[in-house]
Amino acid sequence: MNPDHRERRRIAISRGMLAEAPEVMARLADGSLQLPCTAFPLSRVGKAWARTGRSRAPSSWRIEPSIHQNVIGERKAMQKRALVVGLGIAGMSAAIGLRQAGWTPVIVERAPERRTGGYFIFMFPEGVRAAADLGIADHLHTRNPEWRPGGNSWSVDRRGRRKPALGLLDAPSGLAAVLRSDIEAALWQGITGDGTEDAVEVRFATTPVEITEGAGGVRVLLEDAGTGKQYLEEFDLVVGADGMRSSVRRMVFGPDEDYLANWKAMICAFQMKEQVPTYEASDSIIVSRPKRAMWVFGLADHAPCAWLTYRTDDIPDRFAGPSIEQVRAAFSGMEDDPVVRHVLDSLEQAPDHVFDSIHQVKMDRWSTGRVVLVGDAAWCMNTYSAMGSSSSLRGGAALGTALREHPDDLAAALDAWEVGLRPYITSQRRSARIKQQRFVPSSRPVQVLVSGVLDLVRRVVHRRLAAEFTAAAAPTAAAVPSGRTR
Prior knowledge:
By secondary structure, the protein is α/β, with parallel strands linked by helices.
């Protein structure tokens, strides 16, 4: 909305109702219809009232100021409104779930535009099912490489020798390989609508400054970063989906240090322009050493993504200088390896990258009153779990289901949502410690042990995959008998 409009007097009346005057205005006058909550300048109401043929509005009709309230028509006048803070995977999933439950969500996002970048993500079956529940599965592009005999994944030892490795997509668990941008695009299409549902309102460069809960709702002081102006708005629910360092969590639940568990590790991730020389385009490559590791994830129809991680005790100092210099320092002594050298050079050329410390968020309760946290803001399991996106999708879909099942009792809905979701989140959070040892072993003995176990598993899995590959190819070979000409 144009910031200048906020300086003008507004009244609560909907665009749809103005279009239906004078019938609607007459019903407003006799009290048979309540005012909806979209703001319009007083002059427009005067013109609409004039079309009713009445001399003046009744004195009992009180019109209250309102800003940015996007409810249209008599049907929506009674809809509950929710503020969703954050336009990430968790925020958009929650918004779609809320809309499915009959709510009117409004998303505010700190950034001035969509964040369409990102890196490689695994979608587990829980995430795939949640995408279907949210109605975005048909819009979601997956990039699983086709498995080939011998495998698509390689481990590189200290002497630079490559050997077959167990790829993360080799396990028979229904994993889907995607980019964050693939999920973002599918969710964006979901919230903007395809003509069958109303689009969700999104306000960019907007942040909550203060959240105050009252008897009948939550009053939020919002700030437009472009103008610096602030305005109050009331909602029935506030959903904090603004990431691991959530501003909603700080305002309502307390400071970050009360909930962030430091894992003393760092991550750097980015999209590469091209594959490491001598490897196939869809190959995945692992260079793992004690306390530091480098992964290259190959995709079916896209350049690979690089994922670097290392353990460190001095995380506060890691943000003191340029991130690329920090990463190069962490992998010093490994530059003789062609894979390491290519990935580090690719980092220099990448237009953007993610560089951050690794934490988990642990909370005894994800909601209080009319404020609820979802995704990383509530339960960040960290990158080692590989479950962040799947859990965010599932959390948003489950929130919508709980609100549908308890339409008149918000407290009961939030209780049911958390009771149903928490065991899954707790289990995945605990597994992150084990997965961390695979991604970046803590010591040389651990590396040897993990490598040995994974190699045994790889032999079994690859034999099964090879048999399936041969069986699938057999009908094709049988279709053209050898020695026969046409």
